[in-house]
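User: Sequence in, structure out. Go.
Assistant: Echoing your sequence, followed by the structure tokens.
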Amino acid sequence: MVITIDYNVMTDTWYAEGPGGCHLNTLVLPDGKTLRDIGYVYLHGDLEHLAGYDLICTLTENGQEPIPKVGKYPVCIAIGNQLYPSMAFIWMRKDFGFTTGLVVLLDDTESMDYAEANYSSQSQRI
């Protein structure tokens, strides 16, 4: 699988949760923005190993739970002060009616294949 990424249009940055990240379900920042966990979306493969855990969060303006858009798209994952170009694979779970998915490093071929297979089959368990 070959993926070409235009980093000039990569605007989404998600943050690894846990040590050095957002430790709680919600963290209000001094500027009024809120870091909220992205439920049912997980880091996978080399990216999970780099972070030491699989949970991620993102900035929200109003503190509401973030709902990632369905699809396959590039994101940056921040772990500490490092940014990692990654790919998000997000789909709708039919059994509960919410989004789920995996985020993997662009150069982690095995995990990209795994995420693509789960995305293509709209897996209900990951």
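User: And one key feature?
Assistant: Strands lie at 13-16, 26-28, 34-43, 55-60, 71-79, 82-92, 99-105.
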